[in-house]
């Protein structure tokens, strides 16, 4: 029984990180119908920006994280306003091509600047701290922090989209951008704000991921795959669905890891394919 409880708990903690990876992707698709194939590379890029702030500029981590969030907000606005707004539309192919190109550029740029060596953030041992539960179960403090941040981000997004004028502007622009233009709302600025918020979520995911493990410049496609699977499993356009999808993916991987270290990632992919076959709209879809 204790091993089953441990698998579930560790799966939930791992899944919370996947859900945080996916939250920005879910927001971008829900508002702009844009599939960002550079999403994972943006996570890796911000990990290396944070590494540069802490290791090269010697900014303390507690100060570097808020600074990274500010940088991410501005970068997200600039990328969407200057680049992605030009290719956003009913045809998804141009945005796929452009974000794929951004992915290649980011990977090669990071390898030029930082080399291909994996880097990690110095946390003073926080990444290995844990406390014990009965039955020999140990819960890491960093995974628990990740779970708390992911729940807080999900609640904040639900409140933003359901209770604020900005959220109503996001929903209206997503439904019919021509009508909102007649009401004096600029779709270009609205989409840029949505991408800014997505980049803030990416910055949070990058911080927690960089604290958890060493990161390589070429890790982006794998992170994109986890994010994409969590969004599809949970349901397009649903934040709580994305959270549930990430948790389901994490538990599936932990079950695989329990039987064999090589089965974890594979079993997560099997779950994704099973959901895609049986319920392609995901657990909690909100986007038709």
From TrEMBL:
<dbReference type="Pfam" id="PF02653">
    <property type="entry name" value="BPD_transp_2"/>
</dbReference>
<keyword id="KW-0813">Transport</keyword>
<feature type="transmembrane region" description="Helical">
    <location>
        <begin position="263"/>
        <end position="282"/>
    </location>
</feature>
<feature type="transmembrane region" description="Helical">
    <location>
        <begin position="42"/>
        <end position="59"/>
    </location>
</feature>
<keyword id="KW-1003">Cell membrane</keyword>
<dbReference type="GO" id="GO:0005886">
    <property type="term" value="C:plasma membrane"/>
</dbReference>
<dbReference type="InterPro" id="IPR001851">
    <property type="entry name" value="ABC_transp_permease"/>
</dbReference>
<dbReference type="GO" id="GO:0022857">
    <property type="term" value="F:transmembrane transporter activity"/>
</dbReference>
<dbReference type="InterPro" id="IPR052157">
    <property type="entry name" value="BCAA_transport_permease"/>
</dbReference>
<feature type="transmembrane region" description="Helical">
    <location>
        <begin position="223"/>
        <end position="251"/>
    </location>
</feature>
<dbReference type="GO" id="GO:0006865">
    <property type="term" value="P:amino acid transport"/>
</dbReference>
<feature type="transmembrane region" description="Helical">
    <location>
        <begin position="12"/>
        <end position="30"/>
    </location>
</feature>
<comment type="similarity">
    <text>Belongs to the binding-protein-dependent transport system permease family. LivHM subfamily.</text>
</comment>
<feature type="transmembrane region" description="Helical">
    <location>
        <begin position="191"/>
        <end position="211"/>
    </location>
</feature>
<feature type="transmembrane region" description="Helical">
    <location>
        <begin position="65"/>
        <end position="84"/>
    </location>
</feature>
<keyword id="KW-0812">Transmembrane</keyword>
<protein>
    <submittedName>
        <fullName>Branched chain amino acid ABC transporter inner membrane protein</fullName>
    </submittedName>
</protein>
<keyword id="KW-1133">Transmembrane helix</keyword>
<feature type="transmembrane region" description="Helical">
    <location>
        <begin position="136"/>
        <end position="161"/>
    </location>
</feature>
<keyword id="KW-0029">Amino-acid transport</keyword>
<keyword id="KW-0472">Membrane</keyword>
């Amino acid at each position: 029984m204790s091993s089953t409880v441990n698998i579930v708990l560790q799966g939930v903690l791992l899944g919370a990180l996947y859900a945080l990876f996916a939250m920005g992707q879910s927001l971008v698709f829900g508002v702009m119908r844009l599939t960002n194939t550079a999403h994972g590379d943006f996570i890796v890029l911000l990990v290396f920006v944070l590494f540069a702030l802490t290791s090269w500029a010697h900014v303390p981590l507690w100060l570097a994280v808020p600074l990274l969030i500010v940088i991410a907000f501005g970068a997200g606005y600039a990328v969407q306003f200057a680049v992605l707004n030009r290719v956003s539309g009913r045809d998804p192919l141009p945005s796929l091509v452009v974000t794929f190109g951004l992915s290649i550029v980011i990977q090669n740029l990071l390898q030029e600047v930082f080399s291909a060596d994996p880097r990690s953030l110095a946390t003073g041992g926080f990444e290995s701290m844990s406390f014990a539960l009965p039955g020999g179960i140990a819960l890491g403090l960093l995974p628990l922090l990740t779970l708390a941040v992911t729940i807080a981000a999900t609640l904040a997004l639900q409140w933003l989209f359901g209770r604020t004028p900005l959220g109503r502007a996001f929903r209206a622009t997503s439904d019919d951008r021509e009508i909102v233009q007649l009401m004096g709302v600029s779709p270009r600025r609205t989409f840029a704000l949505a991408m800014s918020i997505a980049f803030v979520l990416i910055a949070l995911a990058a911080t927690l991921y960089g604290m958890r493990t060493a990161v390589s410049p070429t890790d982006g496609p794998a992170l994109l795959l986890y994010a994409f699977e969590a969004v599809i499993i949970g349901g397009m356009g649903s934040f709580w669905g994305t959270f549930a999808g990430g948790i389901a993916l994490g538990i599936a991987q932990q079950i695989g890891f329990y039987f064999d270290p090589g089965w974890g990632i594979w079993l997560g992919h099997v779950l994704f394919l099973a959901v895609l076959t049986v319920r392609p709209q995901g657990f909690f879809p909100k986007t038709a």
